[in-house]
Amino acid sequence: MEQDNLIRFASRMDYLPPYLFGMINKMKMDKRRNGDDVIDLGMGNPMDPTPDAVIEKLVNVAQDPKSHRYPESSGLPNLKKEVAKYYDRHYNIALDADKETYFTIGSKEGISHLCLAIMGPGDCVLVPAPAFPIHIYASVIAGANVMRIPLEPENGFLDRIIKVCEACYPSPKVLMLNYPHNPTGVVTDKAFFQEIVTLAKR
């Protein structure tokens, strides 16, 4: 009897939904194969060329021998200080540059690492529906249970969040929010965030 030597995926992979942009790309390809004229309003890839000044700076940095080594794992110290200064200057928020500023390759990597750091099996995370895909994928990979809260055309999203938080046991550990909301583009006001902070402190 032939032994099955295939690597078996972890069970968490069974709970990952299909990748949204992969599905959209397939739909676009199918339409184009059928001769349809497709206007691509998908991923926000830049269409304009990168400014010359940015390219020149990248070239200069790449040619600097100091750039040919691994950087600090938590970020360049001077950059961390500048980020802390920016928050102090623009938002009147005092950050500890060493302990409260971190850098990742991109937002998706940052969200994934954050979920792995604070979530685990049995934790509940609330995610708007629709949502940017990484909010769901990162939560599932971390082992959390994802509960979708519909974003309806009418108001009431905050009320739905409050009702879910009151009804769930154990209480949700994380609420994923991003504004302007991706993918709808909806914005909200300061009062909404104040209510969310009050809810989180209960």
From TrEMBL:
Transferase keyword on record: yes
Organism field: Desulfobacter postgatei
Protein name: Aminotransferase
Stored CDD domains: AAT_like (cd00609)
GO molecular function: pyridoxal phosphate binding; transaminase activity
Cofactor dependency: pyridoxal 5'-phosphate
InterPro entries: Aminotransferase_I/II_large, LL-DAP_aminotransferase, PyrdxlP-dep_Trfase, PyrdxlP-dep_Trfase_major, PyrdxlP-dep_Trfase_small
Ranges where the Aminotransferase class I/classII large domain occurs: 37-202
